[in-house]
Amino acid sequence: MFFFTIRRVLASVLVLVVSSFLVFALCAASFDPLAQYYSRNPRPPQEFFDQLRERFGLNDPFLVRYWNWLTGVLHGDFGVTVDGTPVADQLPGRLMVTGRMILAAIVIAVLLAVIVGVIGAVRQYKPSDYTFTFIAYILIALPTFWFAALLKEFVAGGINDLLGSQVLYTIGEETPGLSLYAGGWELWSDRLGHLVLPTVSLALLSFAAWSRFQRASMLDVLGSDYMRLARAKGLTYRRTVLKHGLRNALIPLTTVVALGIGTLFGGAVITETVFVWHGMGEYLLENGIGQQDVNVVLGWLLVSAVFVVLFNLVADILYAVLDPRIRLS
Q: Which GO cellular component terms are attached (predicted)?
């Protein structure tokens, strides 16, 4: 197990280095840090542009620019924004805001996918299976921004009216200014109220697709020879399904979840826009793409790549835990 993990870690590091190179090449070809100055009236003199090109290192060869950026990142320096603010000072706070929504969405989506997928497979072609299938296909067909808007407009208002107080919030990740004078449970309960709807929006759309994979995987396992052998040895049906079937059926779902992290980051950008969260999504759209700020976009893409590679590494390790034969491959 130890050497298996070491091999996967080294492979992940190599993938991350290649990803950083591709990310830098894409941003270097797509963004011009000087674009915002071209349309100014009057237009700055050529000496101004020459000084900026020297300041941003745009006169250096591409590989030199990439190496300077990569070595800076390894030392915690992601460069500065067009306003002169270090990107490294802004990323942690933004990441904490988006991270709690994504992590909560993953936990909820995985739990629901496993439960619904197993029930759908065990009770195949029963009313419960048809009901879950119908709900899953409806959620898969819904656009992210529209589903989030439905929750914001109807669910929040209905629950708040039912309870007679504002429990669910539709704007921001916390009440503005609350952290200046509140703390402890008051602050966290407020953040939880702001977290519910964005998390539910992101989790349900992910759960819908993941539950179909879990159902199909569970059906394959239920029809396998070793499951029939376990029943022939006298094990109860429940014990056979949970101990032998579910463990093997989780392997395909682990792959789907690991590969879906990038999709969750993309969905988080839209969800944050609908609920006006000041996280990584807003940082990318307004500070990065909106201002043609290449260092902001590079920071966002690199953080996303790190999470995708990290979750795939965790998935590789989980493979070995779920099926020890994988360690020998």
A: plasma membrane
How far is 170 from 151, CA to CA, in rounded Å? 9
pLDDT per residue as tens digits for the range 41-53: 777 787 877 887 8
Domain ranges of the chain: 2-31+94-328
Contact 47, 36 (CB under 8 A): no
- pLDDT averaged over the chain? 83
Helices marked H in the chain — which ranges?
Answer: 2-30, 35-38, 46-55, 62-74, 87-122, 127-141, 144-150, 156-163, 178-181, 184-222, 225-232, 237-239, 246-259, 261-275, 280-282, 294-322
Tell me the one-letter amino acid at 284.
L
Q: Which of 4, 12, 79, 86 is nearest to 308 (CA)?
A: 12
Query: What pLDDT, on the 0 to 100 scale, is given for residue 327?
Result: 58
Tell me the pLDDT band of 180, cut-offs 50, 70 and 90: low
Return the pLDDT at 113: 92
- Secondary structure class of 61 (helix, strand, coil): coil
Q: Is the pLDDT of residue 186 over 80?
A: no
- Please check the confidence at residue 169 and state whether its pLDDT lies above 90: no
Comparing CA positions, the residue from 184, 191, 105 lying closest to residue 148 is: 105
134 pLDDT higher than 60: yes
Query: Which residue from 324, 322, 203 is spatially nearest to 253, judged by alpha carbons?
Result: 322
- String of b and e for 278-316 (b: at least 16 CB within 10 Å)? bbbbbbbeebbeebbbbbbbbbbbbbbbebbbebbbbbb
Separation CA 183–CA 270 (nearest Å): 29
Residue 245: the pLDDT is 80
Cβ atoms within 10 Å of 119's Cβ, excluding its own: 19
Could you give the 3-state DSSP secondary structure of residue 75? coil
CATH superfamily of 2-31+94-328: MetI-like (1.10.3720.10)
- Per-residue confidence (pLDDT) for residue 107, from 0 to 100: 92
- Rounded CA-CA distance 160/168 in Å is 7
